[in-house]
TrEMBL record:
InterPro entries: Mal/L-sulf/L-lact_DH-like_ah, Mal/L-sulf/L-lact_DH-like_NADP, Mal/L-sulfo/L-lacto_DH-like_sf, Malate/L-lactate_DH-like. It comes from the Bacteria. Keywords: Oxidoreductase. Pfam families: Ldh_2. This is (2R)-3-sulfolactate dehydrogenase (NADP+). It comes from Methylobacterium gossipiicola. One of its GO terms (molecular function) is oxidoreductase activity. Belongs to the LDH2/MDH2 oxidoreductase family. Coiled coil: none annotated.
Length: 333
């Protein structure tokens, strides 16, 4: 007979995450920010960016690869620019600081940008972009990550999976959010498969010898297959230049892993661009809605993020179902 897996309310899941992070040496503010991000990703059905990350985060805090209690600093090098230093701590408090400051700058000038350096894993990249779109902005986020993809035609990883997120407001409803990794799948999906003891589909990654593999451990030791083949690696190059080169962060090939507690902090970066949605055309949001309607009017078509919003609503009503094994690992951190 199968026993039902435990279910936590969102409040209980948040408390679990905060408690775990504090136990490892995280400061209260960073723990609250990180817990919001992890529980939010879990609720959205993005489990690879959810509570499972507590295991790696806890180990990294204890090894001083991740600074658990550091003050984020924000400076203004130019009128429309924010320079955010995450201090080798969690990315989430730095992203929160950027999201808090960007709206006023973007509304006053039409456009603003925040560059985050000495950062870490940014989690579900669509969440900060969505938070800005909910305040009437069009947002783009670029994040680099430790090396996991080879350049097209090469055999050594120099690019991260490098997520790109976009969000814009839609009148009377949740923002439209596009959030994608530049590998065929997010690397977190392979991490999750390894933790579950499951094989991965062929075509997600190759092993260290460049051979297709369904073994998640071999995939993590090898390289990811890019989204759209050569086009995906071209976009990954663009993100490296924007989120690391431009902001003063480490390139993927210079960063240590987000997944283990070995070595020094990764020191990766993020770049957020925010535009006032009405800066060029006062009816822009209505135009966004018109295009959304053209898509949704077609049978079988849907806007990006539809499933994420449905998962969020279910989680708010019914809570999060977690495996006994995951809960045991978190409690052991």
């Amino acid at each position: 007979m199968f026993r039902d897996m435990p279910t936590l309310t969102l409040t209980e899941a948040h408390a679990l995450a905060v408690r775990t992070l504090l136990r490892c040496g995280t400061g209260r503010a960073a723990a609250e920010s990180t817990a919001r991000a992890l529980v939010g990703a879990e609720a959205d059905g993005l489990a690879s960016h959810g509570l499972v990350r507590l295991i790696a985060y806890g180990a990294q805090i204890r090894a001083a690869k991740l600074v658990g209690d550091v003050a984020v600093t924000v400076t203004r090098p130019r009128p429309g620019l924010l320079a955010v230093d995450a201090g080798h701590g969690f990315a989430y408090p730095a992203l929160d600081a950027a999201v808090a400051a960007l709206p006023d700058l973007a509304r006053s000038q039409g456009v603003a940008a925040a560059a985050i350096r000495r950062s870490h894993h940014c989690g579900a990249a669509g969440r900060p972009a969505e938070a800005l779109a909910a305040q009437g902005l069009v947002a783009l986020l670029f994040a680099n990550a430790p090396a996991a993809m080879a350049p097209w035609g090469g055999n050594r990883a120099v690019f991260g999976t490098n997520p790109i997120a976009f969000a814009c407001p839609l009148p009377g409803r949740s923002p439209l959010v596009v959030d994608l990794s530049l590998s065929k799948v997010a690397r977190g999906n392979i991490v999750a498969a390894r933790q579950r003891g499951e094989a991965i589909p062929e075509g997600w990654a190759v092993d260290a010898a460049g051979r297709p593999t369904t073994d998640p451990a071999a995939a993590l030791a090898g390289t990811m297959i890019p989204l759209g083949d050569a086009k995906g690696t071209a976009l990954a190059l663009m993100v490296e230049l924007l989120a690391a080169g431009l902001v003063g962060a480490r390139f993927a090939g210079e960063a240590t892993s987000f997944l283990d507690a070995v070595g020094e902090p990764p020191g990766t970066g993020q770049l957020i661009l925010a535009l006032d949605a009405t800066a060029f055309a006062t009816d822009a949001c209505e135009r966004f809605a018109a295009l959304a309607a053209m898509i949704e009017d077609q049978d079988g078509a849907r806007l990006p993020g539809t499933r994420r919003l449905a998962a969020r609503a279910r989680a708010a009503e019914s809570g999060l179902t977690l495996s006994d094994a995951l809960l045991a690992e978190i409690e052991a951190v």
